[in-house]
Amino acid sequence: MEGQQSTSEPHPARILVSSTRKPISYINLAKRFLQEHGEVQLTALGIAVAPMVTVAEILKNRNLAVEKKLVTALECMRDDWRTRQKPKMEIILTKSPQFDEIIEAENEAPQTDGHLEGGAEEAGGKPLHAAADDEDGLLDGEDGVL
User: Where would I find the DNA/RNA-binding protein Alba-like domain in this sequence (predicted)?
Assistant: First the structure.
């Protein structure tokens, strides 16, 4: 499928992955899109491809999603002097058969004081909050909170 152009109409559950945000910030958003739409499209350009693959693999390894489609392409980007080609990748994931059971179990698990599963924290001891509601992609400061 290499070099195949993506569809002209954007996917209703599309996540544009950035290299500046932590992959964990996309996981809750992807889970929400999987619940609402049954599938999610992850898209990345250039150096953001690696974090996007990380997000997809985390969802697959937790048995939340199954890979449906993978598209690679070279996107032409123009600057003042020349045209450059940047790698682009799109992954479409669908809900796994176990998705609803896993989400139900996560929702029944006792919630702690804002920490993610297992008390995940950054090196500075600050809680690492998922930015699932941060649709515009802006985070407040280094600690990853909204």
Answer: 15-65
Per-residue model confidence as pLDDT tens digits over 3-31 = 444 445 788 899 999 999 999 999 999 99
8 Å CB contact between 114 and 127: yes
Cα→Cα distances 125→1, 50, 120, Å: 44, 26, 9
C-beta of residue 69 within 8 angstroms of C-beta of residue 89: no
39-45 vs 14-16, strand pairing mode: parallel
pLDDT value of position 80: 85
74 with 85: CB under 8 angstroms? yes
Q: Domains of the chain, with CATH numbers?
A: 14-97 (3.30.110.20)
* pTM for this model (two decimals): 0.67
Q: Are 62 and 28 a contacting pair, CB within 8 Å?
A: no
| Burial call 96-119: b when 16+ CB within 10 Å, e when fewer | beebeeebeeeeeeeeeeeeeeee
